[in-house]
Amino acid sequence: MKIGWIGGWGISLEEMRPLAVSHAPDAEHLIYPPVMGAAENLVGCDMVIGWSLGAHLILEAASRGVKLPAKALLIAPFTSFCSEHSKCGKVSETQVRWLSRLVKTDLPNALADFRNRAGLPPSNISESPYESENLLKGLEILSQPAGISLISFCRQGLPSGWEAYVGSEDLLLSPDGVCQSIVGCQIVDGLGHNLGEFLADNSN
Question: How many helices (H) and strands (E) does the chain have?
């Protein structure tokens, strides 16, 4: 079985890999950072798993007609991330823009600040998780409202074989708003924005 992954913003492939292997030890894992075009790389997989911005990119690609696998697991998905643009997000566009400026001047603190806001544990990886250019592009995606095609796609309900979950204690997303925007998404009590906790809860 081949599983394609797209992680969250600012999360390295090195951090994602042990989570993937622990979730499905016998599978082949293709892991990508959350950049434009990442979802297109997953067309030949048996399953896709997206987290946060990665889940958003998978939904966005599907709304454009990209033929993704019939099985998908989306953790902490959203249509629009910023609080001004939809019911999904708790973070303001001003905060995202501020973070973008901080990435350019003090990347370690930018990443640490984001992890703290998201309720994620500190990273023990000192290097940049992926190219700074793609970190900035990711924040640009987060700062923008969703397009009509994505909004319409998500309101129609998840495709058969797709599952989506958001934690009741997510610090970045409003669970009720996410589930109103993405029909078929389910709230998991007691969980936040941490991918590892969801995978443990959803283990095979």
Answer: 8, 6
